[in-house]
């Protein structure tokens, strides 16, 4: 499966991020927002992998709709990474500006 490496990297990111949150002295609200942003990445990757598996199961033939489905699944992962980056950056800027 071509997404295994990406999924492993995202799980490592979740583990590292969760470890940081455990020791970081920020509000519970901020920790929750940061943790949810990491879970969003995992969720998007799971959905992307499911879409790719279904498309590949139906047919390995190249079809524009199959390509579109896979591209949109990948876009969802990219958007989730962007959302997480914005949330983490916002909290970091707030934390270090005090």
Automatic annotation (TrEMBL):
Localization, UniProt: Cell inner membrane
Binding site for substrate: 6-10, 45, 74
Membrane-spanning segments: 12-29, 35-55, 75-96
Cofactor(s) it depends on: Mg(2+)
Keyword terms: ATP-binding, Cell inner membrane, Cell membrane, Kinase, Lipid biosynthesis, Lipid metabolism, Magnesium, Membrane, Metal-binding, Nucleotide-binding, Phospholipid biosynthesis, Phospholipid metabolism, Transferase, Transmembrane, Transmembrane helix
PROSITE patterns listed in its UniProt record: DAGK_PROKAR
Residues annotated as binding a divalent metal cation: 4, 52
Positions of the catalytic residues: 45
Enzyme class, UniProt record, top EC level: transferase
Topology in the lipid bilayer: Multi-pass membrane protein
GO-annotated cellular components: plasma membrane
Reaction catalyzed: a 1,2-diacyl-sn-glycerol + ATP = a 1,2-diacyl-sn-glycero-3-phosphate + ADP + H(+)
EC numbers: 2.7.1.107
Textual note on the cofactor: Mn(2+), Zn(2+), Cd(2+) and Co(2+) support activity to lesser extents.
Binding site for ATP: 4, 52, 70-71
PANTHER family, per the entry: DIACYLGLYCEROL KINASE
Function comment: Catalyzes the ATP-dependent phosphorylation of sn-l,2-diacylglycerol (DAG) to phosphatidic acid. Involved in the recycling of diacylglycerol produced as a by-product during membrane-derived oligosaccharide (MDO) biosynthesis.
Protein family per UniProt: Belongs to the bacterial diacylglycerol kinase family.
This protein's name: Diacylglycerol kinase
Organism ancestry: Bacteria, Pseudomonadati, Pseudomonadota, Gammaproteobacteria, Alteromonadales
């Amino acid at each position: 499966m071509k997404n295994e490496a990406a999924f492993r990297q995202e799980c490592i990111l979740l583990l590292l991020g969760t470890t940081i949150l455990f020791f970081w002295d920020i509000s519970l609200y901020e920790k929750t927002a940061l943790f949810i942003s990491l879970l969003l990445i995992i969720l998007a990757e799971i959905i992307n992998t499911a879409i790719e598996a279904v498309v590949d199961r139906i047919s390995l033939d190249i079809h524009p709709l199959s390509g579109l489905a896979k591209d949109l699944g990948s876009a969802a992962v990219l958007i989730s990474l962007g959302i997480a980056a914005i949330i983490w950056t916002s909290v970091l800027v707030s934390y270090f500006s005090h």
